[in-house]
Write a structure and sequence with these properties.
Chain A is mostly helical. Chain A has one helix and no strands. Classes of the chains: A mainly alpha, B alpha+beta.
Chain lengths: 63, 180
């Protein structure tokens, strides 16, 4: 199918109502993704600093 | 909301995320610099070369020089050869709470050492001298395994680092201390 068959940037087979629904979903989904990412990165950083302060530093100097 | 607005929102979110990641990288780098500057925790970075074919014949890694030695200035140096599949000597004695220099070399293949419960950890490469300065705080017999696969007997390659209190660390007249 040639690109000219779609005058706007709407995906093939998606009507105007579906386009609105898609926009709504695109507004909501990133919030969840952001929350999940923040939780994951926070846990990672907590783990890193836990090892840094509780294991790495007490093991003393080396070089 | 039109597509242009959505794109702007996505771009803003990505930029915010990039700033957060940049801040995390800076915090981690700061922690590494803090450990290096104030706690003297650095990766061992000694560059010394010797001939692995003749290290047992002359120089500092001959049999008589291996083990722990205290020089006339009080500097404690331990020399050890890592070879398939043993450490020579198998046991070394070092004082607690005092600067110790560990020197390793290998006549055959690449080995690696770590002392459990400490930050001592280095590769031992034939033709090079690996040197680590450290202060042992933990006392007792610490396990020192080879941590670089060196052949079929790798899992049997273990040594003991005996960390004794300073008052029990008594070098002989020749400055040598061994596990006895």
């Amino acid at each position: 199918m040639a690109p000219d068959d779609f005058p706007d940037d709407r995906a093939p087979g998606i009507g105007a109502d579906e386009e609105v629904a898609l926009e709504m979903a695109l507004r909501e989904v990133p919030r969840g993704a952001l929350a999940l990412s923040l939780v994951a990165v926070t846990l990672l950083m907590v783990g890193w600093f836990l090892l840094y302060f509780a294991v790495f530093l007490p093991r003393g100097s080396v070089g | 909301m039109d597509h242009a607005a959505s794109e702007r929102k996505i771009l803003q979110a990505e930029l915010r995320w990039a700033y957060l990641v940049g801040a995390i990288v800076l915090v981690i780098l700061g922690a590494i610099v803090f450990a290096a500057v104030s706690m003297h925790i650095n990766p061992p970075s000694n560059r010394e070369y010797l001939d692995p074919k003749s290290l047992h014949l002359s120089g500092e890694f001959t049999e008589a020089n291996l083990g722990t030695h205290v020089d006339r200035y009080g500097q404690v140096t331990t020399r050890m050869i890592t070879t398939q599949f043993a450490f020579v000597p198998q046991c070394i004695v070092v004082p607690a709470d005092r600067q110790v220099t560990l020197r390793f070399t290998s006549p055959d293949v690449i080995h690696g050492i770590l002392v459990t419960g400490t930050n001592v950890n280095t590769m031992v490469i034939p033709g090079h001298v690996s040197q680590v300065h450290t202060v042992f705080r933990k006392r007792g017999d610490l396990l020192m395994p080879c941590h670089e696969y060196c052949g079929m007997g790798h899992s049997q390659m273990l040594a003991t680092v005996r960390v004794v209190p300073p008052e029990q660390f008594k070098p002989g007249p020749d400055g040598r201390v061994d596990c006895g």
